[in-house]
Amino acid sequence: MGFRKKSKSPPVLSHEFVIQNHADMVSCLAMIILLGLMFEVTAKFAIMFITVQYNVTQVLDEKSDPVNLYQYGPKDVATVFFYLLIAVILHALIQEYILDKMNRRLHLSKTKHSKFNESGQLAAFYLFSFIWGCSILTAEDFATNPTFLWEGYPHTHMVFQVKFFYICQIAHWLHALPELYFQKVRKEDIPRLLYYICLYVVHIAGAYVLNLHRLGLVLLVPHYLVELLFHASRLFYFSDENKQKGFTLWALLFVIARLLTLTLSVLTFGFGLPRTENQGFSLAEGNFNVLTIRMSCLAAICLTQAWMMWKFINFQLKKWREHSQNQASKKKAVSPKSKPHKKEPTRGGAANGVVKSEDKTSPRARKAKAS
Fold it and tell me: Record's superkingdom (predicted)?
């Protein structure tokens, strides 16, 4: 009698072991950093990872209380690294306790399974970021004063919410790079994911370093709303393929968001910043208001919007072709393949070897006539 083979656990530090236990390993690393706060020797280094650095206290008026503002610096790299670890942990929690349970109920294919997980993770992030960004913009009163995008540039000082928002944004998009390995993303999907991850990192980090965080925040909020609608519509589509109305609204808002982004960018780099008092380039003062940098930023935004519109048009054309092909196949299935023909009478009134008599009288009457 043979023994049953037990499923062996993967070898320690092998690829499969790291993939299965990456959330636990990252949690241990984050706990080590948090434990550093308990000891005086390591507390100074642990605080650099956990709390927001470069605090500056300003007194606006003699009667008002001092205001705590923040700048950016090289120590922000440590803070971004710590919240990158937090993002990996949150990613694993959403995957295990929400998305995996939904996948078991829906019974999706492998391709739809990976897209469902991608949309689920991004929808949660976009929803959180959109609400957070709207709360910051509400406090800034951007709707009543759009000139705050360039007035007083360089904007070297930020409130806590703005700086922490940017650190979390950069940390999230950087954590998406190792997630390509942890989630076993297919090779054909890696270039597409790398494109938009790198675009997010470059644009958000560029706005943060060039002291354009006001413009960056205003452009991110409507963009995140459009992306949230797209991924939420895709989640509903995977649950029920008849639910496709969300994609129509997404297509409309997508075009509006691209026009809004171009309008605000041209208004800021073409008209607002050239007319401010502080012109010139100074790393010490954080001033990057020169023609070369302004045109480079505007060109980068315009090229990105053009690339997104190109991808959007190709996506819509592909969907339109699929829809037309489905309609054509349905029409072929409904229409008969050949027209029905009238049955020709057989010779002698026989059908299938049986002779049919046209006399409708009963057999007894026929015998009486015969006699």
Answer: Eukaryota
Q: What is the pLDDT, as a whole number, of residue 329?
A: 78
Residues 37, 41, 45, 48, Cα dihedral to 10°: 50
Tell me the sheet residues that pair with 58.
67
Whose CA is closest to 300, among 206, 173, 174?
A: 206
Model pLDDT, residue 62: 66
Contact 319, 233 (CB under 8 A): no
Would you say 228 and 141 are in contact if contact means Cβ atoms under 8 Å apart?
no
Integer Cα distance of 252 and 250 in angstroms: 5
Residue 296 Cα distances to 191, 209, 217, angstroms: 25, 14, 19
- Give the global pTM: 0.84
Query: Prior bond to 146 cis, omega within 30?
Result: no
**3-state DSSP assignment of residue 157:** coil
Contact 143, 275 (CB under 8 A): no
- Amino acid at residue number 88: V
- Classified as helix, coil or strand, 272 is helix
With a CB cutoff of 8 Å and minimum separation 6, the contacts of 265 are 215, 219, 297, 298, 301, 302
Structural contact between residues 273 and 294, judged by C-beta atoms closer than 8 angstroms: yes
Greatest pairwise CA separation for the chain in angstroms? 139
Cα separation of 294 and 275, whole Å? 12
Q: How many residues comprise the chain?
A: 371
Structure tokens at 248: 């129509």
Amino acid at residue number 126: Y
* Contacts of 22 by beta carbon, 8 Å cutoff, 6+ apart: 88, 92, 178, 182
Q: Is the pLDDT of residue 241 over 80?
A: no
The separation between the first and the last C-alpha atoms of the chain, rounded to the nearest angstrom, is: 91
Q: 361: pLDDT confidence band, cut at 50, 70 and 90?
A: low
CA 287/CA 209 separation, integer angstroms: 10
Q: Which residues pair with 56 in a beta bridge?
A: 69
Give the pLDDT of residue 97.
93
Task: List the one residue out of 155, 160, 91 whose CA is nearest residue 123.
Answer: 91
